[in-house]
Specification:
Number of helices: 11
Distance between the termini: 69 Å
Helix content: over 70%
Radius of gyration: 22 Å
Number of strands: 2
Largest sheet: 2 strands, antiparallel
Low-confidence stretches: 152-156
Shape: globular
Strand order of the largest sheet: 1-2
Structural class: mainly alpha
Length: about 325
């Protein structure tokens, strides 16, 4: 897939324009978005992603379109899981609801910038070292095991990373919010507000998530442009998704299991691909193992979509059953 420089420039330009509009809308009136507003923005981003995928299909063929849609769905499902942690961060820092949009937006912008570096590094590593796929596959299988061991339906734990601990220890800070300002002056001294710490927490936490999501999408496509686009479309609607399903996300009790299946599948797919193109001298004498199956994108897309559908339906049925059981027990307790 040949991507001309002007295509990269146009894509980044459109992204920056959308982000500027987003910043101006929120900056003019910080507020908690209504359900209608959230649905409208999410519908726009989903429609843009679908149009982009159709454009890839028309210009580059179904193979690359399938790779984009598989990568986008995987990144989007991982982003939904990230909402658990974002909810914990915003709650722990006590961010007022009307300022949470701004904190999420800036955190997402930071995440986009940092993921751009990860994508570039990943592309360079894959281009230079075929054995990187072994490492990516091992990372994803390990992450899948961690998802399973973490259980289902439990609130994600958030532990402050080294950057946040350093900021709290070394930056003079105030305990109170002052709108969405990052710093204020008190008694002639410049202090950072909790809002700055929240944005750093969101951005750096998403960077840690990228350690799993970037290898996952490189297991579905080796095209940096498609990797970048899938990440952009997955993250751009995350802010509105937070407000739309902030309560619903806790009902997706089997989401970790579904993500474990997807990541484990992609991890195995990466290792099989690495074996198929092997050049490590201590594996099969350094020769590729062409007898090893190389899983195609059609199968990958089917596994991803099927897993997400089964996970979502099973989670909602489980939540409905739990709620019904609770309702049945309450009258009995009143007697």
């Amino acid at each position: 897939m040949t991507i001309h420089p002007w295509v990269w420039v146009a894509t980044v330009g459109v992204l920056v324009a959308i982000l500027i509009i987003d910043v101006l809308v929120i900056g003019r009136r910080p507020h908690e978005p209504s359900m209608r507003e959230s649905v409208s923005w999410i519908s726009l981003y989903v429609a843009l992603a679908v149009v982009f995928g159709i454009g890839v299909w028309l210009l580059a063929g179904g193979q690359y379109a399938g790779e984009f849609f598989a990568g986008w769905l995987t990144e989007y499902s991982l982003s939904v899981d990230n909402l658990f942690v974002f909810l914990v961060i915003l709650t722990r820092f006590g961010v007022p609801r009307k300022y949470q949009q701004t904190a999420l937006l800036i955190g997402i912008i930071l995440a986009l910038v940092m993921r751009g570096f990860f994508i570039a590094i990943g592309a360079a590593a894959i281009s230079a070292f075929a054995w990187v796929f072994y490492i990516f596959g091992a990372i994803l299988i390990y992450t899948a095991i961690q998802f399973v061991r973490g259980g289902t339906g439990e609130e994600s734990e958030y532990k402050e990373n080294a950057v946040i601990r350093w900021a709290k220890k070394n930056l003079p800070a105030t305990d109170s919010y002052n709108g969405v300002k990052l710093t204020i002056v008190e008694n002639g001294k410049r202090l950072v507000t909790p809002m700055l710490l929240v944005m750093i927490a969101l951005g750096t936490t998403d960077l840690l998530f990228a350690l799993d999501s970037i290898p996952a999408i490189y297991g579905l496509t080796k095209e940096p442009y498609l990797v970048f686009a899938a990440n952009v479309f997955a993250l751009m609607g995350l802010r509105q998704l937070y407000f739309l399903i902030g309560g619903l996300v806790t009902r997706l009790v089997y989401l970790p299991i579904g993500l474990a299946v997807i990541l484990g599948f992609i991890g195995v797919k990466l290792i099989l691909h690495a074996l198929h193109e092997n050049n490590l001298p201590f594996v099969n004498g350094g020769d590729p193992m062409h007898s090893v199956p190389d899983i195609g994108i059609a199968v990958s897309l089917g596994v991803i979509v099927g897993t997400l559908l089964i996970t979502t339906v099973a989670s909602l049925l489980k939540s409905r059953s739990t709620a019904q059981k609770k309702d049945d027990e309450e009258p009995a307790q009143t007697h």
